[in-house]
């Protein structure tokens, strides 16, 4: 038996929807739970103006769902710790979770989520926040009656384009491929907007501007030709990169960097679980994060009984 004195029974790293739900579930099962949050409480959905799909189906703001979930976590007596986790160290049959505070636990749930990918083209980094944005809800108002480009063909790109269409003069969605991956409900809504157009087989090669965005240099794959398009803003939504740097390097990952887990959400490291956008094969929606949270809580409950 370990001689280590555990500070908590579970540490959950990341207070997005997956981490908030998992911490609440395990705490409700009677396990002393620490939840670490690096200041971006709620994670990706915090900036979503109108949530699509479950749990509420009524288009509530992401921030409202996060507030309700934090309330539930605190009510379940989750020990909520502000501050980023800088290091996660495996030490035999326990884990040391180090940030501003340190906790020692037999089990860690990694819920550090994902970051929006960048286009990685010239001009993007320099103009981030000055014409390049990844939040239509936060920044859309700055582009009232202006022309913007959204890059990407998934749900997030289409959802954000719909939000921009309410304020901008023109929204052009640029796709590298032939067809969008977004759900038909989003595609249908976009098609119904007369100020949104879809342009396929097009790559962004450069974002041009000094103090703000003036134009994008595009490559039209069909014509095998470049062109410059004048715009006022650009919103890249080209996928998510799982944040897994805290997991030991040897932890198995998929080709996209997501942590590979079993049916109980455990990685190949004993006592290290991964849920939500940080894991391989994540479903992509809030409802999937909630299911992951339930699954990991039930698995841990059975393991400790
Ligand atoms: C633009 C956009 C729109 C979307 N719209 C919808 C929608 O309408 N409906 C829907 O169901 N889904 C939507 N989604 C998907 C949904 O946002 C995600 O599936 C979900 O938020 C993933 O939650 P998560 O908790 O796994 O990860 P995240 O939301 O990424 O949360 C991870 C959390 O961990 C924190 N963290 C990271 N590293 C550390 C560390 N070292 N220490 C402490 N904390 C750390 C992060 O700051 C963050 O708070 C949308 C996604 C995007 C990008």
Commentary on this structure:
The protein is of the alpha/beta class. It has 2 domains: 10-116 and 240-304, FAD/NAD(P)-binding domain; 124-236, FAD/NAD(P)-binding domain (3-Layer(bba) Sandwich), CATH 3.50.50. 24% of the residues lie in helices and 25% in strands. The chain contains 7 helices and 17 strands. Strands 3-2-1-7-17 form a 5-stranded parallel β-sheet, covered by helices on one side. Strands 11-10-9-15 form a 4-stranded parallel β-sheet, covered by helices on one side. Strands 4-5-6 form a 3-stranded antiparallel β-sheet, with no helix packed on it. Strand 9, helix 5 (155-165) and strand 10 form a beta-alpha-beta unit. Helix 1 runs parallel beside helix 2 (62-75), helix 1 (17-28) packs parallel to helix 7 (286-304) and helix 5 (155-165) runs parallel beside helix 6 (184-191). The protein is elongated. Bound molecules: flavin-adenine dinucleotide.
Keywords:
FAD/NAD(P)-binding domain, 7 helices, alpha/beta, binds flavin-adenine dinucleotide, 305 residues, 2 domains
Number of domains: 2
Bound molecules: flavin-adenine dinucleotide
Q: What's the CATH topology label of the largest domain?
A: FAD/NAD(P)-binding domain
- Terminal CA distance reads 16 Å
Q: Taking Cα atoms only, what radius of gyration do you get, to the nearest Å?
A: 21 Å
- Residues in helices, as a percent range: 10-25%
**Major beta sheet, strand line-up:** 3-2-1-7-17
CATH class annotation of the largest domain = Alpha Beta
Structural class: alpha/beta
Q: What's the order of the H and E elements? A: EHEHEEEEEEHHEHEHEEEEEEEH
Number of strands: 17
Gross geometry: elongated
Strand count, sense and barrel status of the largest sheet are: 5 strands, parallel
Mean pLDDT comes to: 95
Q: What is the strand content?
A: 25-35%
User: What would CATH call the architecture of the largest domain?
Assistant: 3-Layer(bba) Sandwich
- What is the CATH superfamily label of the largest domain? FAD/NAD(P)-binding domain
Low-confidence stretches: none
Work out the helix count.
7
């Amino acid at each position: 038996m370990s001689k280590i004195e555990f500070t908590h029974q579970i540490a959950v790293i990341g207070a997005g929807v997956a981490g908030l739900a998992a911490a609440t579930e395990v705490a409700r099962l009677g396990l002393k739970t620490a939840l670490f949050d690096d200041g971006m409480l709620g994670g990706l959905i915090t900036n979503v103006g109108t949530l699509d799909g479950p749990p509420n189906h009524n288009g509530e703001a992401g921030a409202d769902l996060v507030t309700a979930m934090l309330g539930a976590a605190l009510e379940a007596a989750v020990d909520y710790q502000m501050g980023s986790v800088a290091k996660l160290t495996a030490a035999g049959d326990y884990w040391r979770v180090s940030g501003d505070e340190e906790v020692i636990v037999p089990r860690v749930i990694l819920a550090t989520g994902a970051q929006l990918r960048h286009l990685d083209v010239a001009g993007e980094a320099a103009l981030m926040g000055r014409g390049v944005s990844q939040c239509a809800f936060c920044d859309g108002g700055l582009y009232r009656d202006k022309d913007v480009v959204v890059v990407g063909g998934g749900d997030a790109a289409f959802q954000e384009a719909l939000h921009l269409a309410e304020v901008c003069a023109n929204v052009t969605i640029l796709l590298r491929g032939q067809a969008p991956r977004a759900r038909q409900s989003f595609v249908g809504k976009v098609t119904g907007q007369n100020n949104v157009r879809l342009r396929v087989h097009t790559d962004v090669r450069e974002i041009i501007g000094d103090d703000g965005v003036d134009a994008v240099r595009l490559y039209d794959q069909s014509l095998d030709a470049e062109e410059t398009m004048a715009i006022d803003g650009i919103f890249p939504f080209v996928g998510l990169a799982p944040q897994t740097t805290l997991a030991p390097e040897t932890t198995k990952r998929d080709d996209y960097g997501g942590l590979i887990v079993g049916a109980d959400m455990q990685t190949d490291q004993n006592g290290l679980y991964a849920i939500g956008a940080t894991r391989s094969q994540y479903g992509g929606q809030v409802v999937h994060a909630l299911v992951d949270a339930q699954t990991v809580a039930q698995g841990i409950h059975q393991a400790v009984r």
